[in-house]
Design brief:
Keywords: Membrane, Transmembrane, Transmembrane helix. It contains seven helices and two strands, in the order αβααααααβ. By secondary structure, the protein is mainly alpha-helical.
Length: about 220
């Protein structure tokens, strides 16, 4: 018998020993995963960080500028109405002023030129008034670069006033028109100066009024 051979008796002892060893208990199942905590809901009462668009009253300088613009436009409209009323009386004086420049033309030419001069001044005043009304609305809505256009209308009004003195505002009937246009020009300059004060500039630069805090 060789050393590697196992007798039946020894094989039986090995099998008996294997059967006598107690079986290991099964490993317990892993515990179920813990439920995830629900995310916290944002607070409904505290809204201090949320920006809110609000309608705040404009500063005093803005309201003052708006008042002067309205008054200036009103005076300008009064000047336009007065100029239209004195149209028939002023046309001969305008024709006479044109005739002094060149007296070699026919009479009908002077009358036609007087009509052109009158309606040119009249149309310029109407255009200035309408433009200033539109720019006042834009200024109240904080549109950018509105003040430059308002300054342009003041310059145009100055040119019309200087030309009108020589061509339209003749005689006693032209004096009230000159005073009205001078008043319109002065009020426009005053309104423009109020609109460029620091509080008015800051108000226009914001474009919108924003408040941070709870709504209510």
């Amino acid at each position: 018998m060789t050393g590697s051979e196992v007798t039946p008796a020894e094989g039986g002892d090995v099998v008996a020993r294997e059967r006598s060893v107690p079986a290991l208990p099964a490993a317990p199942p892993p515990p179920p995963p813990a439920p995830k905590a629900a995310p916290e809901r944002p607070p409904m009462a505290d809204k201090a960080a949320a920006p809110v668009l609000v309608k705040l009253p404009p500063p005093f300088t803005v309201r003052l500028a708006q008042f002067w613009w309205v008054l200036s436009i009103t005076v300008g409209i009064a000047a336009i109405v007065y100029l239209f009323i004195i149209r028939v009386m002023q046309l001969p004086d305008i024709a006479a002023a044109v005739e002094k420049v060149d007296g070699s033309r026919a009479e009908a030419t002077y009358e036609t030129t007087a009509d052109i001069v009158f309606w040119s001044v009249f149309a310029a005043l109407v255009a200035v008034a309408l433009t200033q009304i539109a720019l006042l609305v834009a200024f109240s809505n904080r549109r950018p670069k509105v003040r430059w256009w308002q300054l342009f209308t003041v310059m145009v009004l100055t040119v019309v006033l200087l030309l009108g003195r020589e061509l339209v505002m003749m005689g006693d009937r032209g004096k009230p028109l000159e005073l009205l246009l001078l008043s319109q020009l002065a009020l426009s300059v005053l309104a423009l100066l109020c609109s460029v004060l620091p509080p008015a500039l800051r108000w226009s630069a914001r474009r919108h009024d924003v408040r941070r805090g709870p709504v209510g």
